Amino acid sequence: MKKLIRLSLGSYLLLCSLAAASASENPNQAMKPPKVLVIVREFVKPGKSGSLHQKSESAFVQAMTAANWPTHYFAADSLSGQSRTLFFAGYDSFEAWEKDNLATQANTTLSAALDSAAIADGELLSGYDTSVVVYRDDLSLRSSLSIAQMRYFEISRIVIRPGHSKEWEALVKKYISGYEKAVPDARWAVFESVYGVDNGGVFLIFTPMKSLAETDRSFVASKKFEAAMGEGEMTKMEALAASCIESDQTNVFQFNPKISYPVDAWVKADPAFWAVK
Hints:
The protein is built from nine helices and eight strands. With 277 residues, it is an alpha+beta fold. α2 (51-66) runs antiparallel to α4 and α5 (165-182) runs antiparallel to α7 (231-244). The longest helix has 18 residues, at 165-182.
């Protein structure tokens, strides 16, 4: 559980409003996470990342822009682990996701453009999958924020042993209680996987950052948390973690505005970063 502890300082939810945001919204306004989050993973072949992948992905952005499509998405490239790019789109409900899919299919011009872009993009990929996760407010801490100024994020993937979900929830709530008191600016957001390759006892913890220096500070925060909880309580929590957690892994990603389709408010707030050049 050391990774879960470390993730807490300055952790902000990356995807608080991607699909629901409109061009008129204040980019500095804190917002709650989306209830439903669709995550597409593209695994890029060795030597095919960077400018090659950005060029192929720009065709998707151009198609969405030409259609003035209301659903926006965000992309991030891996800085650790297997070479891959993640794309995120948030929805208020599964019904909203369905309506977006049906509207895309009905728009023949957009569908044709997306199909053409997918053919070119597929030549660069070694794999592709889609997962759907739902926001767990009860396991999150201070998850509302504005993210237009963020640049990196960590994602921790926690796999829970079958039949131990209640223990996991109890463990996270201990962290919430402890961090609320020990680290006033700590916050995180938890999503539970329901569809795709990563479901069945899988939880994702998002930690956006303005700078990787926030990772350095998070180690200090974890020490404050441990001291506040006390050795006896930490021993109990470690035992609980060993009982309910099957595996955990954390990786860091860098925002990629060149292959994102952000809302206009983000571009206007920071055109030097978000405006596609």
